[in-house]
Amino acid sequence: MSVSNVSGCGKLYVVATPIGNLADMTFRAVEVLKKVDLVAAEDTRHVKMLLQHYGITNKLVSLHQHNEDKAALVLLEKLREGQSIALVSDAGTPLLSDPGMPLVKMVKEAGLDVVPIPGACALITALSAAGLPVTQFSFEGFLPRTSSARKAFFSERLQAKKTWIFYESCHRILATLQDMAEILPLDRQIVIARELTKLHETIVKTSLGDALLLVTQNDNMRKGEFVVIVDGAIEDKKEQIVTPEQEKILTILLRECSIKTAVALAVEITGVRKKLLYQAALQFEKEKEID
């Protein structure tokens, strides 16, 4: 396996590491960590234990949220000199709510190779066992630390139709669910996944109200690292059709106005969503042409 490219510059390997169970380390990840010239780690003490477990002896350098801008410049020069580097976080796939973005961005802009070494990721692990729609989803990372900011966040996503996911710590999981319960309907389906791949792994799918009760009453449900998955809002069926009365209003407006103006006025008069009225207006115009 080559860890450098034909240009003489080294490659940056973005290496996923286990999120709890050491057996989830891939063969390819072990091979890369053995053969690179150095490993850039979020916490060198933590990663050192992982390397020792797999019999890897390699040079470690620190790259964390407080030094990553300066460290990235140094590592970029090493890559240009021909050294190969592996980027790892404390657990999971780097850059997903972990340090590393400045380095990857600099390396890409410099025209050098960035090679992903896939593996464990708490986000995908939780989604795969959640039982909620995953065709489309949004990942929100860690939520704001203050209650007011979290409530604003939840208000913005109240009507979001697709599944959304965030990470949370044991210190804030209860407060976060309390804030969520003030904004979202208590019957909204959510999944709480904690300690994924570890001994006390727990994945619970239930309503927001029951989840809040569970976390409040069970001390163990306030321990560990959390992935929270929230089902999208159910679209109001009443808004999915245009009633005969609303169609009549739109038809009258179309006689006097352009489609754009007629739709805008109909939205103001009826309160029906613009997209539905615009589709209806196009259909009316199409039928008029056929007649």
Task: Map the helices and strands.
Layout: E1 12-15, H1 27-35, E2 38-41, H2 44-53, E3 60-62, H3 68-80, E4 85-88, H4 101-109, E5 114-117, H5 122-128, E6 137-142, H6 147-156, E7 163-169, H7 173-183, E8 189-194, E9 202-207, H8 208-217, E10 225-230, H9 244-256, H10 259-270, H11 274-290
Parallel strand pairs: 1-4, 1-5, 2-3, 2-4, 6-7
Antiparallel strand pairs: 7-10, 8-9, 8-10
Helix pairs in contact: 3-4, 6-7, 7-8, 9-10, 9-11, 10-11
Structure, briefly:
By secondary structure, the protein is α/β, with parallel strands linked by helices.
Give an overview in words:
The longest helix has 17 residues, at 274-290. The chain has 11 helices and 10 strands. The protein has 291 residues and is of the alpha/beta class. It is extended. Strand 8 and strand 9 (202-207) form a beta hairpin. It has 3 domains: 12-120, Tetrapyrrole methylase, N-terminal domain (Cobalt-precorrin-4 Transmethylase, domain 1, 3-Layer(aba) Sandwich), CATH 3.40.1010; 123-230, Methyltransferase, Cobalt-precorrin-4 Transmethylase, Domain 2 (2-Layer Sandwich); 239-290. The chain has a 5-stranded parallel β-sheet with strand order 3-2-4-1-5, with helices on both faces.
